[in-house]
Structure to design on (307 residues):
């Protein structure tokens, strides 16, 4: 019997797991650790909080630049590396994310939606959301702000829009270089849908990013996040950890960049687990917060509503 690709696809994205009790793992707690060898503050550098850059402890003021260097370095091989590292499964995650949100101006509605895709990079989610709104609801009016702190990554998005002949120099679509933790150009209470995909993990202050998402959303607006998370099944976690060890080697061989992919692996490890991140979403003020783990918890979709 031919197994339809959709059955295979859905089994790779969302595996209904009934874990026996002895399989459950203690939840790893996300916390900012003080540096093991604290840099003593100098007169030029008053006491500064530290943060992590992957597994390294760095001055908080330097993280944004370090992350910027990483994404400027990976930008031109970003799409290829995603397919290689995830065996193409990242596409299934993103399709599921877009279909589950199912956003678009309904035919009987007069008000187009205002989307913002933060850390939008090469446009996978932003373009996918607009395509979905148009194909499912005939929506060609909703607007999209694609925001990213890194101009090189945004250039990849603009290049794709130009090559595909869609959304380039489109009055509905803006490409904005801006920090997702602040979004100073975005008015409060102005957006209907806020999405962030594989981006918030890289923020210097994740809670600040969530608080800003809350600020820019309208009452009734939806926060929607796709991010790496914690693998709940110990056997799958073991296999995943072995795979993760290979990612920097792939980065070195394909993109000539071992360190950026070592950072990727370490940043995934540092990101809070599903429940902890849900609590952070609630702390920002969102209600009805929830999540869905995908592919054994390799990543998860989290959401919340601004009431
Ligand atoms: C610097 O930061 C980044 C740089 C960059 O270029 C991209 C990103 C964003 C990254 C992604 C969107 C994808 C990254 C991919 C991974 C972290 C790997 C995910 C791994 C898998 C989906 C496969 C896991 C493999 C195993 C568990 C090994 C055993 C199983 C198989 C080989 C068969 C496949 C079966 C399953 C997957 C269940 C970035 O942040
Ligand atoms: C792995 S890429 C994700 C791109 C895209 N959302 C996707 O799903 O493929 C992470 C993106 O987050 C961006 N980023 C990191 N820190 C950011 C910040 N503070 N504000 C906005 N974007 C940020 C990076 O520049 C990069 O483009």
């Amino acid at each position: 019997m031919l197994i339809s690709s959709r059955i295979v696809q859905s089994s790779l994205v969302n595996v209904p797991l009934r874990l026996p009790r002895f399989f459950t793992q203690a939840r790893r707690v996300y916390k900012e650790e003080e540096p093991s060898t604290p840099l003593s503050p100098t007169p030029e550098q008053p006491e500064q909080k530290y943060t992590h850059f992957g597994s390294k402890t760095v001055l908080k003021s330097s993280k944004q630049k370090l992350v910027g260097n990483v994404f400027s370095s990976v930008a031109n091989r970003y799409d290829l590396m995603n397919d290689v590292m995830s065996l193409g499964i990242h596409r299934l995650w993103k399709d599921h994310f877009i279909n589950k949100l199912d956003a678009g101006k309904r035919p009987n509605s007069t008000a187009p939606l205002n989307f913002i895709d933060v850390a939008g990079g090469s446009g996978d989610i932003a373009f996918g959301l607009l395509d979905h709104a148009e194909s499912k609801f005939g929506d060609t009016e909703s607007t999209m702000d694609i925001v990213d702190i890194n101009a090189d990554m945004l250039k990849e998005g603009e290049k794709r829009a130009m090559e595909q002949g869609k959304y380039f120099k489109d009055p509905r679509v803006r490409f904005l270089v801006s920090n997702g933790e602040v979004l100073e150009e975005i008015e409060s209470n102005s957006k209907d849908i806020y999405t962030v995909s594989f981006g918030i993990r890289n923020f210097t202050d994740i809670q600040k990013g969530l608080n800003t998402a809350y600020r820019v959303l309208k009452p009734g607006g939806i926060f929607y996040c796709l991010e790496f998370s914690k693998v709940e099944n110990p056997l799958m976690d073991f296999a995943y950890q072995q795979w993760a060890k290979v990612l920097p080697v792939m980065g070195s061989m394909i993109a000539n960049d071992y360190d950026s992919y070592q950072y990727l692996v370490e940043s995934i490890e540092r990101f809070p687990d599903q429940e902890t991140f849900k609590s952070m979403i609630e702390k920002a003020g969102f209600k009805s917060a929830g999540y869905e783990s995908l592919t054994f918890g390799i990543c998860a979709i989290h959401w919340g509503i601004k009431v």
